[in-house]
Amino acid sequence: MSIFVYPLTISSAASGLIFLWLFNSQIGIDVILGKLHLPQPNWLAGQNMFYSIILILLWMYSGIAMLFYLASFMNIDKSIIEAAYIDGASYFKIFWKILVPNSMTSFIISTTMLFLFAFRVFTIPYLVAGGFLNYYSETLLTYEYDLFYSSYFAQSAAVSIIVFIIAAAVVIPYALLGIKRWVYGQ
Question: Is 79 left (phi over 0), alpha (psi -120 to 50) or beta?
Fold first, then answer.
């Protein structure tokens, strides 16, 4: 296993456990909602589990996307922004006409990385579902695990090949576009 897999798996497990505590009906958010006389949804049952998993994943991966964009915005030449401001451009126009077009490389990198992160989600649904998987917490990787665990090895291998093909179909065009921009400066 790669050295880069361990930190992501550990952070996924830690995030899953933290949100399991937050979504616990006896000690979590429901206690605060009950004291405020607000409805207390069962966060980890039925369709609510799907929305809870989405919330956890947004919380986990939005920070890395913001770091990519912040690094890209900090890399833009300040004289261009100052010249636009002196010429009378509003902050909105500076953002849409200067910052966004000059940060397309970070958009390509963050989109590719976030797609791969979201595509290989296994730990969060497995932890949130309590070890068993149900319809609302199933992803392609949990489905592959379920097939493998049930001794359907050929179907599990077929699903893993499908996962690989979809990931390659997304990553290869972005990688070629990135290489083209890097080599030719376009």
Answer: alpha
Cα atoms found within 13 Å of the Cα of residue 136, Cβ hemisphere only: 15
Tokens of 168: 């390659």
Residue 71 neighbours by CB distance under 10 Å: 13
CA atoms within 13 A on the CB side of 88: 0
Segment 143-152, tens digit of pLDDT? 888 888 888 8
Residue type, 103: S
Q: Please give the CATH superfamily to which domain 5-184 belongs.
A: MetI-like (1.10.3720.10)
Spatial separation of the C-alpha atoms in residues 50 and 42, rounded to whole Å: 12
What is the model's pLDDT at position 186?
Answer: 57
- pTM of this structure: 0.74
The answer to whether the CB of 128 falls within 8 A of the CB of 44 is: yes
What is the rounded distance in angstroms from the CA atom of residue 179 to the CA atom of residue 46?
A: 44
